[in-house]
Amino acid sequence: MRSARNNPGRVALLLSAFLSALALAPQPAPAQTVTDQKALATLATPPAGDSVRGLPADAYKIPAKKLFGRQKLPADMKARAIGTYAKGCLAGGKAIPVDGDAWQVMRLSRNRNWGHPDLIALVERLARESKAAGDWNGLLIGDIAQPRGGPMLTGHASHQIGLDADVWLTPMPNRTLTRDERENISATVMTLNRKQIDPKVWTVNHAKLIMRAAKYDRVARIFVHPPIKAELCKWATGDRSWLAKVRPLYGHNYHFHIRMKCPAGMTSCKDQWTPRPKDGTGCGEELAYWMSDIPWKPKKPDPKPVDPNKPKPKPPVGLTLSGLPAECRAVIAAK
Ligand SMILES: [Zn+2]
Description:
With 335 residues, the chain is α/β, with parallel strands linked by helices. It has one domain (32-333): Muramoyl-pentapeptide Carboxypeptidase, domain 2. Helix content is 27%, strand content 12%. Strand 8 (219-224), helix 8 and strand 9 (246-248) form a beta-alpha-beta unit. The longest helix has 17 residues, at 8-24. The two termini are 34 Å apart. The site of zinc ion (ZN) has 5 residues, from strand 7.
């Protein structure tokens, strides 16, 4: 400060640098409602030594899901998955075409057909190979990721680094769906309840499609509803090692979720570490757990009675850009 006060020329220089930085900065988004000023004061502090230029003025002030949710285009950078599947972002995202020779993208209004180019190539390969083999007419593709990945306002905890893709278990019809249909058609639910498959809709071709995806070397895991895993365990013969990648998870009864391994040598990307099922397939103990009532036991009720006179606690701001990997700042700042 002292040197600046003693040197008017330096003050003018700093001022002009500040003004030109302002001119370069993108227009700030409309004001956001801040729900918890106190939480914001801590979270909104840019990390020390932050030197990323071109960040929007509100980059640290709004929840990361809003910041990433409003990105319409990818960051024009070298393609990289940054962070973990459930906390990260995507540089150099690529969109899968909404109409392919063996697929159609659903729910176009969500703009979530972006992914790491390797994942896009893998989804296209699955679509083409399963069609060519006569197993599947074509893929109906659900959410992949936002143009720059990151957390989403609705839906998923993961799908943040462009290496996760949801594929419907509904076969593609023999025609191009209209935009309206892609928005409104419901996917077919494959289960009668949490323990039983619906034999009227489940086919051997569903099993073949999931097996093909699981056998790809670069696929890390596939999530399906527990009774679907049970059905695959009953069906599979010969080499059953691919079953180890098919993991039971609720909520996957009308689509399955493909998770790809981090591309080789990509240090910015963190693979998910969990042990492989002990029996080599997950058809034993792990499946028994998921098919039991244990995961469904209701949580203990809150012992404290709610005081109606007490004001409701405000929801916290949640994760902001400062809570994501540092490289995600450049992803937001990029053109
Ligand atoms: Zn998913």
